[in-house]
Amino acid sequence: RNHPCVVFWSLQNEMRWVDGRDTFKLYIPELMKIMNDADPTRLVSLDGDNRLISYENTQIESLHYNIDGTIEQWRREKPLTIGEHGGMWYICPQNASQYVGYPAYEDFEPCAIGFAKKERLFLEYARRLGVPGLSTFNFAYYFNYSMPDEDIYPGTGPTKRIPKNSLTINNGLLPEKYPRNRENPLMPFMQEAFKAVTVINREYDSSFYGDVPLTRTFDVYNDTLHSHETTVKYEFTVNGVKTAGEERFTQPPADDHILELTFDPGDITAKTEAELTLRLYHENELMHERKWEYRFYPRTIQKDSIRTSRKAFYIGNGECFERVRALLPGISRIGSVSEADEGSVLVFGNRLDLSPDEVQKETGEFAARGGSVVFLEQNTFALGNLSLVKQDFFSAYTGNHSHPILKGLSDDDLIFWGPSVHEDRPEALIHSNFAKPQSGEYTFVLESGAGDYADGGDLWTPLMTMRHGKGSVVFCQIEINENYEKVPQAAVLLRNILEYAENAGYTAYRKVYAADERSGEMLDELNVSRVYDLGEADIAVADPATADTESLKTFLFNGGTLLTLPFGETGAEKLSAISGEDIRAGSCEVSHLQPVSDDSSVCSISPFDLYRYDKVVMSPRLVENKRIAFNRIECGNAQPILMDVPGTPWEDYHWHKIKTEMAIIPLVSINREHPKEKDTFFACLRSGKGRIFLSQLKYEKGDEKDIRVWSRILENLGVKVKTGVFDYARGVPEISVGYFMTLPIEPWQDYSHAKEYYTDPDFSLNNLGEGLYGWMKKLEKNRQDGFIYIPDSAKRQYFLTCFAYKETEGEVRAVLDCNYPACLYVNGDKVTGEKVLMRSGDNRIVVETASEQDELRFRLVFTDDAGRPVEDLRTHLTIDEVDPK
């Protein structure tokens, strides 16, 4: 009872997922009473199990991760504990990239640091809101390297052998050379966040205009049992000028003292680095020291004009026009595309109040003749088959830092555009993002990720360019105008975009020929313009196993470029005959590649598209892990361009599904201790006056990553890959609801009770997708027709759910299309016509349907009276629920 480590008693942990929980929860009050009678001085917690107890009987509110509710929803009538938190158990690059960019894919450490950065932000947020109990999971397993480095035989006692890599905490039986633990790069982040005596910043943005003073606030924590005479000394250095001072105060135990400091950066005429150092003392003892780095920009970056040689025109609202005109003083505001001169720069301002049909055809013709087009951030406006996802994103990053639009910007400049962080993320810098197009002459200048529990990935792009005819197009969804006056990176980005549009040039397309039926099918599926005579071609695409050896040998001798489809032994023999080199294909399955040279053929291929572990543990997405290649290239004189990424644990974690907790860290060590030589899967070989691009990259019809990779390679080689964005008749598929959650009602379940549950006006689904009938799975719409297809749904009954958030109450049109009779419910009410009244805030959307024979498909569209997307409506799949239903 009096043990000093006991703070409160835990009755259980995660019994919510144990068979028999409904019977067990009947006995919880009795079990709690037994514990209270034995020790009336401490409270009892049900860790992570608010579903099993009424709020009235709750003694300690307990949240695990961000599954049920948020800290902001804490009622503060009872203490709150976060019994478990953090994402390391389901570690995967596609969720870490939001915090560290594409280095997350390269190895375990940078990926893990992404999760550590996220967790540190959460811990700092929770401390700021006064949460009494915080427990990041799991320090012992995740934040240390494994040991010992060899099998240990203690020689005494019952322990005969301690296997290599079996420990992360010294059990006391290891030789003296081993420490208690060996911290990995995650540990410092957690140590900083959990320090009892520390200083934590309240604002996270770090770039500012230099014409206003900088004010920063800090939480000074004294989470000790005693009062202290506290001193905070500070030094602010900018342009070699140092400002120093100190603050003194008496700080009681468990106190959070808010410190505010203001600094004048002085005369800022160019981008300038600054540094702030804080040192915290108790009495005269240094307890904590930390540095922050800041950047200051001159306000003139908003006003200094861009050197131009082309005329410029603008369509859109006046506020955005004034910003653009400050950089392009000669720009003219016009009302239609037809008023713009040929070969000029045409800027479409943000938040266009136009139908895409009004400008799509004319804009395409303008660009094709050599014009440069810029579309700034939109809410509902999108051309052709481009799909805007109305969802907040807080960061952007790139796999190609050399792109001219990113001049002067790094990944660090594209996160923390606002000062605050929320429980689950920093402030958003994107409100509507493009779902990455599957094919076409697109370059993803920046990319974005979203999701948790491995839901999502880097599926979106907020900034892309497109070649079209003799011209170019820039699409930007980063909120430049919203942030222009306070975030200098927004001005830098706008300047870069306009300079890119001004300087965009035209390069003639190269002609491509398909040397065999298989190559022709691929080019046709990719919508590639091709010629049908090898003598007219600059590039030939061939399946080496079936291609004509002599004609290709002559083609290469005369300076042609050959791009191969993946090949085996037969194809390798033919390629050897064509090239005169010894080329072989070695069996080697791989799911992850990366460039090892700066060859232009792979420029701007997304690292996400070269990574095929898309289905990871706990992901609700109905996707699967795939291979990107099945054979390696063996050729001594070929220059490797794409190689595999050995030494990471991704194959073990996500392909072989080894997720035993104690194995996660040892697998990192095991992969490094048995290094595998890198294999080549895409390479270049000189042959005659020409080149052969040897490719083992698979091409699977309909696989969007395969499509994007092959489209990008062909476009990099100068081939025209038609986008169709200006020719496409935009319709329902582009604006239908993109996601639903699904779970069948099984024959043994009470259908009437299920209907009552799903159509409850207060229906909720937590952030793990955990409902009364089990964990729901995420379904994504088919991009071609906008329908959501439900696999294995024949002869089964369903309730499908999502939530629609609307800023203001109002009527919308709702059209449900299903291959079997279906009913739509909104906030528990059955919809009988096309009009439905939506309240402000979250609306419960439920589709009820059943299959008689075939698999189900359905499509739901919300529009205004004009048939356009609803301006203030966005859908999402789960909700921050407090009282689960």
Outline the secondary-structure elements.
Layout: E1 9-13, H1 21-24, H2 28-38, E2 44-47, E3 61-64, E4 80-85, H3 93-100, H4 108-128, E5 133-136, H5 139-142, E6 144-145, E7 182-183, H6 187-194, E8 197-201, E9 207-209, E10 214-222, E11 228-238, E12 241-251, E13 255-263, E14 272-282, E15 285-297, E16 312-315, H7 318-327, E17 332-333, E18 345-348, H8 356-368, E19 372-375, E20 388-393, E21 430-435, E22 442-450, E23 457-468, E24 471-476, H9 480-483, H10 488-503, E25 512-514, H11 517-525, E26 539-542, H12 549-557, E27 561-564, H13 569-579, E28 584-590, E29 593-595, E30 629-634, E31 639-644, H14 650-655, H15 664-673, E32 680-687, E33 690-695, H16 704-716, H17 732-735, E34 739-745, H18 751-758, E35 770-771, E36 774-775, E37 777-780, E38 788-789, E39 797-806, E40 810-818, E41 822-826, E42 829-830, E43 835-838, E44 841-850, E45 857-863, E46 873-876
Parallel strand pairs: 1-2, 3-4, 4-5, 9-15, 16-17, 16-18, 18-19, 19-24, 25-26, 26-27, 27-33
Antiparallel strand pairs: 6-7, 8-10, 10-13, 11-12, 11-14, 14-15, 20-21, 21-23, 22-23, 23-24, 28-30, 29-31, 31-32, 32-33, 34-37, 34-39, 35-36, 38-45, 39-44, 39-46, 40-43, 40-45, 41-42, 41-44
Helix pairs in contact: 3-4, 4-6, 12-13
Kindly describe this structure:
With 885 residues, this protein is an alpha+beta fold. The protein is 19% helix and 30% strand. It contains 18 helices and 46 strands. Strands 16, 17, 18, 19, 20, 21, 22, 23 and 24 form a nine-stranded mixed sheet that branches. Strands 25-26-27-33-32-31-29 form a seven-stranded mixed sheet.
